[in-house]
Design brief:
The chain is an alpha/beta fold. It is 39% helix and 23% strand. It has two domains: 181 residues, Periplasmic binding protein-like II (D-Maltodextrin-Binding Protein, domain 2); 129 residues, 3-Layer(aba) Sandwich (D-Maltodextrin-Binding Protein, domain 2), CATH 3.40.190. Helix 2 runs parallel beside helix 3 and helix 11 runs antiparallel to helix 13. The two termini are 39 Å apart.
């Protein structure tokens, strides 16, 4: 029995429900485990969770996992309110979010699930922008550069059409910190990443940024730009993202409510399954797996949090 319902037609604001269970983080009892797990957050991480749940639901129909994609900021708001068990994030948790959780008495655990490279893309017909450095990106997204000629005197005097995720996205926060030095982004903003992709496709002078998998899904219609960091300019590839040589590489996260993780066997199974997968679902979704040792370290951490395998724990308690 497989239950899978995808609600909504856009990536942002969509929510998917799947019956699922599995993984070594919990009891390993599989079909005997029942329960419900709720999450929300990053539309970048969303496709990874969806791929995981496709696998999850095939064998274990008795746990329902629901996950919305209201953006990293929106996901943390729900996590802080206590209405969700986990929050998906495309950036690390902020100090003010930590403080709000502390004020509510909510402890959390951070799990890294994959790596991503924020991809800078221009229109496919753009034949002059092959690479940019962070200073040039800042010129474009601060509004200082109005035309391509302002960025590079050898480029045409044509008005730049810059597109950006809105403030609900962790990608926006990441770009603001990494490129803008926390300055304002002056661009056409949208909550729906698919709209940003389409806008770049439809505007010959367009430029936009988004998670790597959005580029992968549309690379026949977009042109990825090499980004110069501390060393030579690199384009986003699975290799350059994983080894960090691509200047806009980042980690992707799932934050779990510690108490709910300890109390909810279904939740233990879900997180255990994510870590057991070792990034295969992330690769299927167009992202990049972390080094295997990272997943192993987090599996050990999960066992410490939950008291190890539930069956082993029960046996030890019976012996006392």
């Amino acid at each position: 029995m497989k239950r899978w319902q995808l609600i909504g037609t856009t990536v942002v604001g969509a929510s998917f429900l799947l019956g699922a269970c599995g993984g070594s983080g919990g009891s390993g009892e599989g079909k005997d485990v029942e329960g419900e797990v709720k999450g929300d957050g990053s539309s970048t991480v969303g496709p990874i969770i969806e791929k995981l749940n496709e696998k999850f639901a095939q064998d274990f129909p008795n746990i329902t996992v629901s996950s919305g994609t209201s953006g990293t900021g929106g996901g943390f708001e729900k996590f802080i309110s206590g209405s969700t068990d986990f929050a998906n994030a495309s950036r690390p948790i902020k100090d003010e979010e930590k403080k709000k959780l502390e004020d509510k008495g909510i402890k959390y655990e951070e799990f890294k699930v994959a790596k991503d490279g924020v991809t800078i893309a221009v229109n496919k017909e753009n034949d002059f922008v092959d690479e940019l450095d962070k200073d040039q990106l800042k010129q474009i997204y601060s509004g200082e550069a109005k035309s391509w000629k302002d960025v590079n005197p050898e480029w045409p005097d044509k008005e730049i059409k810059a597109f950006s995720p809105d403030q609900s996205h962790g990608t926006y926060d990441f770009f603001t910190e990494e490129v803008m030095d926390d300055g304002d982004i002056k661009a056409e903003k949208n909550a729906d990443t698919n709209v940003i992709v389409s806008s770049v496709q439809d505007n010959k002078q367009g430029i936009g940024y988004f998670g790597y998998n959005f580029y992968e899904q549309n690379k026949d219609k977009l042109k990825a730009v090499k980004i110069k960091g501390d060393s030579e300019a690199k384009e986003p590839t699975k290799k350059s993202i994983q080894n960090g040589s691509y200047a806009l590489s980042r980690d992707l996260y799932v934050y779990a409510n510690e108490k709910k993780l300890k109390d909810n066997k279904a939740f233990q199974e879900f997180i255990g399954f994510i870590l057991d997968d070792k990034g295969k679902a992330a690769e299927d979704a167009g992202y990049v797996a972390l080094p295997e040792k990272t997943y192993k370290e987090q599996q050990d951490n999960l066992k410490d949090i939950t008291g190890g395998d539930s069956k082993e724990k029960s046996s030890k308690e019976e012996e006392k």
